[in-house]
Amino acid sequence: MAGQQNTPDVSHFQRIPWCAAHLSSQNLIIETPHTRLPKPDHEEALMAQTLNRPDAIAAFAVFYTPPPSPSDLLEEVGAFLTLGPMLNGWKGICHGGIVMTILDEVCGQLAAINRARGVVKDIPMMTAYLNVKFVAPVRTGTTVLVRAWMARREGSRKYFVEGVMEDEGKRVLARAEGLFIQLKEKL
User: Fold this and answer.
1) pLDDT tens per residue, the chain (187 residues)?
2) Are 166 and 172 in contact (CB under 8 A)?
3) How far is CA 40 from the centre of its chain?
4) Torsions phi, psi of 67, nearest 5?
5) φ, ψ of residue 48 in degrees (nearest 5)
């Protein structure tokens, strides 16, 4: 595999057979998202601290195949997340707001990875809107696959993104479509 980090999150998914099958592609880059790593100023604290616990989001890893050229925009990313009981709305069912948060986070990984690759300016990108359709209950105590892709771009600042959350059987649980806008300057 091209760029596999040896982190507890990545190792967690390598031990789940259906996840490991997805992660076995030759040129795949697999990593713990930078938003999962605590920062001293509490930036990204929701994903890095509040939800980063064994009974909430027990593990989170993103994966993608790099574009042919290092200067090309990455247009699709996948992620695995293992969901614990502290995400419950109803018993055994993930709260809808958390489902939306996860979809927003994975869709936002497209911008984060492209920034880290130097393909887009190192200026924050924010969610302008995110529309989510809930298709089926998202069970806690399970692992989900979230995929996000670039639907289109307008200019250099507007990125229209779509995404889905699926269970192990490839059943779609939720769909999202949103607009992410790159700010004109750093915050």
Assistant:
1) 455 678 899 999 999 999 999 999 888 999 999 999 999 999 899 999 999 999 999 999 999 999 999 999 999 999 999 999 999 999 999 999 999 999 999 999 998 999 899 988 888 889 999 999 999 999 999 999 999 999 999 988 899 999 999 999 999 999 999 999 988 876 5
2) yes
3) 22
4) -60, 165
5) -80, -30
Spatial CA neighbour of 167 closest among 186, 147, 140, 143: 143
Report if residue 26 sits inside a domain: yes
User: Residue for token digits 């990125």?
Assistant: 159
Is residue 187 in a domain?
Answer: no
Cα separation, 118 vs 99, in Å, equals 29
Burial 91-129 (b: 16+ CB within 10 A, else e): eeebeeebbbbbbbbbbbbbbbbbbeeebbeeeebeeee
Q: How many domains does the chain have?
A: 1
Instruction: Classify residue 52: in a domain, yes or no.
Output: yes
pTM beyond 0.90: the answer is yes
Domain containing 130 — which CATH number? 3.10.129.10
Range(s) of the domain holding residue 57: 3-182
CB 5 within 8 A of CB 32: yes
